[in-house]
Design goal:
Elements lengths: L2 H12 L4 E2 L21 E3 L4 H14 L3 E4 L16 E4 L15 E5 L4 H10 L2 E3 L11 H6 L7 H4 L6 E8 L4 E4 L12 H5 L7 E12 L3 E9 L2 H14 L3 E8 H9 L13 E9 L2 H13 L4 E7 L2 H12 L1 H5 L5 E6 L5 H14 L3 E7 L4 E7 L6 H14 L24 H14 L15
Helix pairs in contact: 1-2, 7-9, 12-13
The structure holds D-malate (MLT) and zinc ion (ZN).
The site of zinc ion has 4 residues, from β15.
Length: 454
């Protein structure tokens, strides 16, 4: 099949208006770190599951690889196209249902933004458990395809724990559907869980069924200034032990805060800068009790320099902005971005050694992330381009040496596949290859992602 033949078939499948080329592919061809950019054959925007199927079959017939893309907020090059790929944008698959109180589920098209799905849940006094800073652009299809983590994993688990079903188109055009929402449904292999976190390499997810739970009536948030990482870990342990309904424990450092303040995204929360700040949030029946519980935990930890506690939505949002603005503020500085996790007991040692590793590569680390999971977003600034790979390698080896994960929540994509062996055994990787070969023997879906070349 010629390129013209492929384009004609794609246009027939989705309509001329939804096959984008030339200048219209802007926004789809580059990820927003600016690190992953390609020249796609076209961006195709199917409007139904059957149209997705037609697009998959057209690409298969032409032997042209395709990459599914949701909100294009990924950070590891999984959804941004390489040269010569077709981008299958799910953004038109954006129907959002209403929560079903009988099953505690909410159905949404893969291309609906997380924010819209959260709003739909909230309108019926429910909530979805997954939340992340890019909620306004990230789609639920992408959230599922990456098994997104985010800031609420402590109470709700990762996306994996909240996906009760999905529909997806496989590389051969067949459509798998598990949308019953039955909490007990042990019929054979769990394809929903296999496709969750598969980063576009095994299927195109078209619909998802997410768990919803009753929305807690009250929330309270504390921002705490601390002496250093050991004090932050002590606070985490105290919060875990003493605060029922603990929902998030995040952290940032003085350097990151300074950048956020300089960018005008937040005001300095405390008169004196502190090395580490922890943001903790709890949910429950009434705000006063939560504020009290948070304050009590904070008061019992040594190394606390200052603290602010908030219960109103507006005040809480201001505290969260200090943390959530980090990614956008850091992006123009083109950091070497490495999402990793280490066991909480190893966190202080890991952070201490990280500075040396970054300095050896000519850089300086700005750290923030999800303290509760030991999930550190390592952003190394000032690394000369020719040393970026060395810094990446050194940081990921340090993570592995501390018993951590080289990808806590962002996935592997194209960015980390060469380091897969630091996180999985040879037997694991061989099994993954067999799964990929079985479901996508021609390598049609998102080639060059997750698995290293043989
Ligand atoms: C976050 O927690 O803000 C995100 O994972 C994004 C990032 O790492 O920059
Ligand atoms: Zn994160």
């Amino acid at each position: 099949v010629s390129a013209a033949g492929l384009l004609a078939r794609l246009r027939a499948a989705v309509g001329d208006a939804h096959v984008l080329r030339g200048g219209l592919v802007a926004g789809y061809d580059t990820d927003w770190t600016g690190r992953w950019q390609g020249r796609p054959v076209a961006v195709v925007r199917p409007g139904s599951t059957n149209e997705v199927r037609e697009v998959v079959l057209a690409c298969a017939a032409a032997g042209v690889p395709l990459v599914p893309q949701g909100g294009n907020t990924g950070l590891v090059g999984a959804a941004a196209p390489a040269d010569g790929e077709v981008v299958l944008s799910t953004r038109r698959l954006d129907a959002v249902g209403v929560p079903d109180p009988g099953t505690g589920t909410l159905e949404a098209g893969a291309g609906a933004t997380l924010q819209r799905v959260q709003d739909a849940a909230r309108a019926a006094e429910f909530e979805v458990g997954v939340d992340l800073a890019s909620r306004g652009s990230a789609t639920v299809g992408g959230v599922v395809a990456t098994n997104a983590g985010g800031a609420r994993v402590l109470r709700a688990g990762t996306t994996r724990q909240q996906v009760l079903g999905l529909e997806a188109v496989l590389a051969d055009g067949s459509i798998v559907t598990r949308m019953s929402g039955l909490p007990k449904d042990n019929v054979g292999y769990d394809l929903v869980q296999l496709l969750t976190g598969s980063e576009g390499t095994l299927a195109v997810i078209t619909r998802v069924l997410l768990q919803v739970t009753p929305r807690p009536p009250a929330r309270a948030t504390a921002l705490v200034a601390l002496d250093g990482v050991p004090a932050a870990v002590e606070l985490l342990i105290t919060l875990r032990a003493g605060v029922a309904g603990l929902d998030a424990v995040e952290f940032l450092t003085a350097d990151g805060l300074e950048l956020v303040v300089a960018a005008g995204r937040a005001r300095a929360p405390f008169a004196e800068p502190a090395p580490v700040l922890v943001l903790a949030e709890a949910v429950g029946l009434d705000a006063d009790t939560l504020v009290e519980a948070l304050a009590e935990a904070v008061a019992s930890v040594s190394g606390v320099r200052d603290a602010a506690v908030a219960a109103s939505d507006a005040d809480r949002a201001r505290l969260w902005e200090v943390r959530e603005a980090h990614t956008e503020v850091l992006a123009p500085l083109r950091p070497v971005k490495l999402d990793v996790a280490v066991p909480v007991p190893a966190l202080a040692a890991f952070v201490a050694e990280l500075s040396g590793v970054a300095a050896a590569g000519g850089g300086h680390p700005v750290l923030f992330g999800h303290l509760a999971e030991g999930n550190v977003h390592v952003n190394v600034l000032g690394v000369p381009p020719e040393r970026e790979l060395d810094v990446t390698d050194a940081v990921l080896r340090l993570v592995a040496a501390h018993g951590g994960s080289i990808s806590a929540e962002h996935g592997i994509g194209r960015a980390k596949r060469e380091w897969l062996h630091l996180g999985r055994s040879a037997a694991d990787i061989a099994a993954m290859r067999r799964v990929k070969a079985a479901l996508d023997p021609a390598g049609l879906l998102s080639p060059g992602r997750v698995l290293p070349d043989v």
